[in-house]
Amino acid sequence: MTDLETKIEQDLKKAIETDKIVLPTLPEVALKVREVAENRDSSIMDLTKVISNDAAITARIIRVCNSPLLRGAREITNLGMAVNRLGMAYTANLATGLAMEQMFQATTDMIDKRMRSVWQNSTEVAGIAHVLAQHYSKVKPDQATLAGLIHHIGALPILTYIEEKDISISNVALDNLIDKLHPAIGELILKKWDFSPEMQSIPREHVNYTRVVQQADLADVIMVAKLQSLLGKPNAPELDWKTVSAFQRLGLDPEVDMNEAEDLSAEMEAAMALLAG
User: Fold this and answer.
1) Would you list the DSSP string of 193-233?
2) Within 13 Å, how many C-alpha atoms sit on residue 142's CB side?
3) Of 95, 94, 93, 76, whose CA–CA distance to 84 is shortest?
4) Residue 148 binned pLDDT confidence (cut-offs 50, 70, 90)
5) Is residue 70 predicted with pLDDT exceeding 80?
6) How many Cβ atoms sit within 10 Å of the Cβ of residue 80?
7) Suppose 127 and one of 109, 136, 236, 271 were both cysteines; which one would form an S-S bond, judging by CB atoms 3.0 to 4.6 Å apart?
């Protein structure tokens, strides 16, 4: 590690420890959606009213409802029908996740490209996680989708720091820095956003490959989804999947590529395409 990389890491760690790290704010539409969804007195009409203020998210939720993943006998033509079909919790999680895309943008080309890459991988993980949750666990697919979209949220402050300080750093060094620091930062962000304790733990627990729990949970789903998304890529962790007990808890063969299963592959691709816009 170079002196520069060491300094960046020390600066960020110090900022975390002293509570001075600048954490991103959840987009306004997501804040309002969560506020309505968590209010027991709220109705589907209340949630529809909030989401309808964002035309892009409205269109994508309707498209999700009419996709092969969730399509019913009747075509969904408006947001009210979509929320009725999905339910308030599912709609709120989906809208929250989709709203986050606007956060993954920067002014400099290098950081903007990296942020978009992080978002793209997050949508891949979310798509795979949706299918895993639906077929191999008791985890709700909408929770798995949202967890996939936020599992790497801790990369944002690191990339923002690099951009604001105008630091020149190699891609390899930046990858190493993000790998080291994003779990702790991600947990802080989700705590600030008042996500559930289980969701807060995702940035940390999805890379805890030796974790042991009684039954497959949200972190297991995201861990396996993340590994599947990195299969064959240069930044895949050097890891023997047979040692990762999450596969066993999900009832999956660690030596089987899910993309080779035609039925699952089609579902995963459909989910990724919808989330990626």
Assistant:
1) TT--HHHHTHHHHTT-TT---SS--HHHHHHHHHHHHHTTS
2) 16
3) 76
4) very high
5) no
6) 15
7) 271
- pLDDT tens across 7-22, in order? 888 888 888 888 888 8
CB 104 within 8 A of CB 120: no
In whole angstroms, what is the distance from residue 147 CA to residue 199 CA? 6
Kindly list the structural domains of the chain, giving each domain's residue range(s) and its CATH number in brackets, ordered by start. 3-24+102-276 (1.10.3210.10)
**CA dist list (Å): 99 to 30, 56, 115, 121:** 6, 9, 15, 16
Lowest mean pLDDT among 101-115, 189-203, 257-271: 257-271
Distance between CA atoms of 80 and 48, rounded to whole angstroms? 6
Locate 41 and state its tokens: 């007195």
